[in-house]
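dumping this here before i forget
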Amino acid sequence: MVHEQMREWAVLYALGSLQGDEAAAVKSHLAGGCRECAEEVRSLRGTVESLAFAVPEVAPPESLRASVLESARRARPDLTVVRAEEEEWVSTGFDGVTMKRLYHDRANKSMTVLIRMEPGSVYPSHRHASVEQCFVVEGDLQFGEREFAAGDYMAAAMSSIHEPSTTRGGCLLLIVSSTHNEFL
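structure:
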């Protein structure tokens, strides 16, 4: 009876799907010198290996990469990582002004973005729904009588109004702001 059980388990063992005590029992049985079971496992392993080549290779759809990356991103909700080559720059709807979203905090209705303004572009006047933080990464930025250069930082209070922002030579800004600002 034991030998018959080992022969049944040999199929699962060859497939690699036998685990724990059962896998250990088959391994021990084979090590004990049972030629009949050893030949069965050897024959089945050859069949199992050839199954991998029995179907034509199919390239996965391009959308699968995005899906896998998004799943990996969701697997670590305590850490958001945006690589330089990820996330496209998208139009803000204002000529010469593009945005790259880095983080969206739905619970607090805020986002962290990079804003790229081409020389001479204008970002319109808006009212802040919460504190807005702006760090000038590179270039120049003006609004009203104020001028800012690379390395400058500002924080605008909730309900304050930003006049239209412009740039002479172009700029790159790191912004942390409400998703509910009101354009005026």
